[in-house]
């Protein structure tokens, strides 16, 4: 049991409570481990895999894992960590996305040992009476304890009643599935703990253990990885695109990816040349989801493109705080040219490139993701937006 517990604890943010988990494991019972993901986009991404890999740990230990596709809750969208309301997606989009999730998750989990569930099965049947009964088990004051809700309320940002229902519906999923353990990101702690309370309200005495996992930052190194933030590396990305995206992240973020996505010894990794370490990371990740042959092919293509374009291995990094700025101003600020007039002249002459693409005019550059800025044949900077 001690070895199993150490495997479960590894890489987690918080376990509530560890003592209860020890008791459940000691009982010898085959536990039901729940992880729910809403199909709000077509692809699972590397951020999801941080939690799915922990689900795989439980599966390898012989427990029953339940991959819950939130096809009902996707109509609302999880408000955790959001500063604004999510855009509404259609039932057709949800259905299409849900179909892709079931296939993608088996890149990690064993198909024949995984229970796949859809929360529309029981939430659609709640009806008005059931929903009112569920809503009565929480208060507005309890919801406003949440930092994200509290902040939006104080800043007079729209906060809909239906968003209050989301944590309750997620909690009811734990009742319907009789979950022993629920996994989630660190930003979901409120929802997961509410699941314990709602289980108790519905007569489940041995309530679920809550395990939270760290959030993986997206390629911008600022916000958590998310399709809506346009900073994600999807499991269904083409091998060459996945490889290129990983190679585009900052050195600092690379170590974070090693920590959350691999079992590599960071002491060894930090003694490697950053480019060598990043290539090794890209090979491992691409190989994991597309096979070693595709990973090596993607690396060869990447190296060939950079070699042909005479892009050096060691590119200086320049960090900016602004989300967007004029290209000419960025060239001056990063020290690549001496004045904006010179910058505009070089741009007009076709001497400026962004990620190997020639800039044809002085436009507003968005810094959501890192990119390589090039002036002439020999000046390079990797532009990275700093964390707030």
TrEMBL record:
For the motif 'HIGH' region, give the residue ranges: 39-48
Q: Does the keyword Nuclease apply?
A: no
Q: Which InterPro entries match?
A: aa-tRNA-synth_I_CS (IPR001412), aa-tRNA-synth_Ic (IPR002305), Rossmann-like_a/b/a_fold (IPR014729), S4_RNA-bd (IPR002942), S4_RNA-bd_sf (IPR036986), Tyr-tRNA-ligase (IPR002307), Tyr-tRNA-ligase_bac-type (IPR024088), Tyr-tRNA-ligase_bac_2 (IPR024108)
Domain (RNA-binding S4): residue spans on this chain: 325-384
Q: What class of enzyme is it?
A: ligase
Q: Which GO terms describe its cellular component?
A: cytosol
So what EC number does this one have? 6.1.1.1
Q: Which PROSITE patterns match?
A: AA_TRNA_LIGASE_I, S4
Q: What is its main location?
A: cytoplasm
Motif 'KMSKS' region, chain ranges: 224-228
Can you state which reaction this protein catalyses?
A: tRNA(Tyr) + L-tyrosine + ATP = L-tyrosyl-tRNA(Tyr) + AMP + diphosphate + H(+)
**Keywords for this entry?**
Aminoacyl-tRNA synthetase, ATP-binding, Cytoplasm, Ligase, Nucleotide-binding, Protein biosynthesis, RNA-binding
At which positions is ATP bound?
227
Q: Which GO terms describe its biological process?
A: tyrosyl-tRNA aminoacylation
Where does this protein reside within or beyond the cell? Cytoplasm
Q: Which NCBIfam families match?
A: tyrS (TIGR00234)
Q: What does this protein do?
A: Catalyzes the attachment of tyrosine to tRNA(Tyr) in a two-step reaction: tyrosine is first activated by ATP to form Tyr-AMP and then transferred to the acceptor end of tRNA(Tyr).
The record ties this protein, via PANTHER family, to: TYROSINE--TRNA LIGASE, TYROSYL-TRNA SYNTHETASE
Q: Which family does it belong to?
A: Belongs to the class-I aminoacyl-tRNA synthetase family. TyrS type 2 subfamily.
What this protein is called in its record is: Tyrosine--tRNA ligase
Q: What is the lineage of its organism?
A: Bacteria, Pseudomonadati, Elusimicrobiota, Endomicrobiia, Endomicrobiales
